[in-house]
Amino acid sequence: MKTPFFLLALIAFTLLAAPAKGAIVYENATTFEGLFNDSKLETGDQLTLAGSERLMTEFSFEYYGNFSLTGDERARVRFYEMNGAPGDNPFATPGTLLYESAAFSINSGYGTVTIEDIAVFLPSNTFTFSVEFTGIGSTESVGLLYYDPPTVGTSDAYFWEKENGVWSAVATDDTGNNFAAQVVAELALFISQVQSVPTGAAVTLSNTTPGRTYTLEYKTDVTQVGWTRGPSVVATGNSVTLIDTTAGSAVFRLYRVEQI
């Protein structure tokens, strides 16, 4: 199956913005191929990330639209884990939904969309982002911009389209079949150790960010409604230890951490 595309007369108008925080683990924003994927289906690209940061904090993509603005034109971004059942091809399709944005307005012409202040944990090195455009007339056009090759991370020479609930791998003969995108991520915060100490329980957090505040919260029973707030600390390095002095001789503690 081949998807229609249109040649764009203009050179790419912008580069994706540099990240405010975190590391760029995928970037494809350098070589614009002069084309966009004209499709009203949910369409996405499967990305393989560089580095070890897997808590996504920012995502950007580029698109082009040619339509009369009525105010109904929208887009929605989704991220999928690559664990879906194989389709026509012998490899996994987009499966578990990891994130779905609210619908947002789009404009005719070139556009860059950046989604900030998110915290999406990516469970593996590979995931698929998709964009679904709505409110576009049958004679109007909109789609993601083709860029290739990626400069950080990699992407295979095909992309995904979802039609009638079924994902299909699609490729054209005239592009690298990759879309403009940037993924910014941080190391995922996690509780690396809990141990008894004379003053209670010592809870060690790994992959903390200097300058951020971490607050320990706990439950004394899995059926407890709400969480009890414990101690807080401002990180000065990539790990911190918080002491839960209320633990005492407790036989059960369920911990979580708030990061601000």
Detailed description of the structure:
This protein is mostly beta strands. It folds into two domains: 5-186, Jelly Rolls (Sandwich); 190-259. The chain is 0% helix and 50% strand. It contains no helices and 21 strands. The chain has strands at residues 5-7, 23-28, 32-37, 42-48, 55-66, 74-81, 97-100, 104-105, 109-115, 120-121, 126-134, 141-147, 159-163, 166-170, 181-186, 190-197, 200-206, 213-219, 228-234, 239-244, 254-259. The strands form four sheets. Strands 1, 2, 3, 5, 9, 10, 12 and 15 form an eight-stranded antiparallel β-sheet that branches. The termini are far apart.
Main beta sheet: strand number and arrangement? 8 strands, antiparallel
Count of extended strands: 21
* Low-pLDDT residue spans: 1-19
Tell me what the CATH architecture of the largest domain is: Sandwich
Shape: elongated
Q: Structural class of the helix and strand makeup?
A: mainly beta
Number of domains: 2
Percent range for helical residues? under 10%
Count up the helices: 0
Distance between the termini: 47 Å
Radius of gyration: 22 Å
- The top-level CATH class of the largest domain is Mainly Beta
Mean of pLDDT: 90
